[in-house]
Amino acid sequence: MTSAIMHTGSAAGNEAAVLSAIQHERLRVARNIHDMVLQDLTAVLLQLRAASRSDCQDSVNSHLGQATSAAEQGLAAARGFLHELRRGLPQLPALPTLPGADHTSLAPVLREAAMRAPRTGAAEILCEFAGAAELPRSVCGELALIMREALSNALKHAAARQVLCQLVQERGAIELRISDDGRGFLPGCCGTGFGIGGMSERAALLGGTLTIHSVPGSGTMVRMRLPVMP
């Protein structure tokens, strides 16, 4: 009886230590976000407001220059902080699919994500969504985020003029493909950015796989394959 009580007390102590560590880490993250990101964003906003109120072109240019510097500083700080948070993280386990989870049709969710994508110039987004896959809402949301990130990369970084989003439903799997006619790149030559890394993590959490095929000057295809119950 005594050993059981000691074991219970030890478990409670370990749980309290873990919760305390989590709380301290959350506070540290909150402080860093405030100090490294929010302050720079506030500086950008103040400079832009000052520029909008000024009638002197030299003053406007000065405010815009300071806003640009503050934005670049905040972006660099945020990237550095993300590197710190991600350093040494273990492989993420797949998220379980709960029985009886609320399901919805995937295609409309993807179409809405495509409509919200930040377009640049006259870039065109085409959608070809075959089948009527019904998946848990959380899974549909993750797939939509993957597609939005791929679209953002194609439109903002690859300078694509046209992006084709396809949903192909096969027996036992669905496949989401985002292909563009942009400038392309050599996968792996410049490291993995947060966007590509985030897409891969989301795919892994869903139990799927994400592959990227790209050739400089010949565009890029992002392919997400997810096994599903037939």
Please identify, by name, the CATH architecture of the largest domain.
2-Layer Sandwich
Counted by DSSP, the helix tally is 5
Radius of gyration: 23 Å
The class by helix and strand makeup works out as alpha+beta
Q: What is the CATH H-level superfamily of the largest domain?
A: Histidine kinase-like ATPase, C-terminal domain
Question: Judging from the principal axes of the Cα atoms, what is the shape?
Answer: globular
What is the number of strand segments?
7
What is the residue-mean pLDDT, rounded to a whole number? 81
CATH third-level topology of the largest domain: Heat Shock Protein 90
Short structural description:
This protein is α+β, with helices and mostly antiparallel strands and 230 residues long. Helices cover 54% and strands 19% of the residues. The chain has helices at residues 2-53, 57-86, 106-115, 137-157, 194-205, and strands at residues 103-105, 124-129, 134-136, 162-170, 173-180, 209-214, 220-227.
Overall description:
- By secondary structure, the protein is of the alpha+beta class.
- 54% of the residues lie in helices and 19% in strands.
- The chain has two domains: 2-86; 103-227, 2-Layer Sandwich (Heat Shock Protein 90).
- It has five helices and seven strands.
- The strands form two sheets. The protein has a five-stranded mixed sheet.
- A hairpin with a 5-residue loop joins β6 and β7 (220-227).
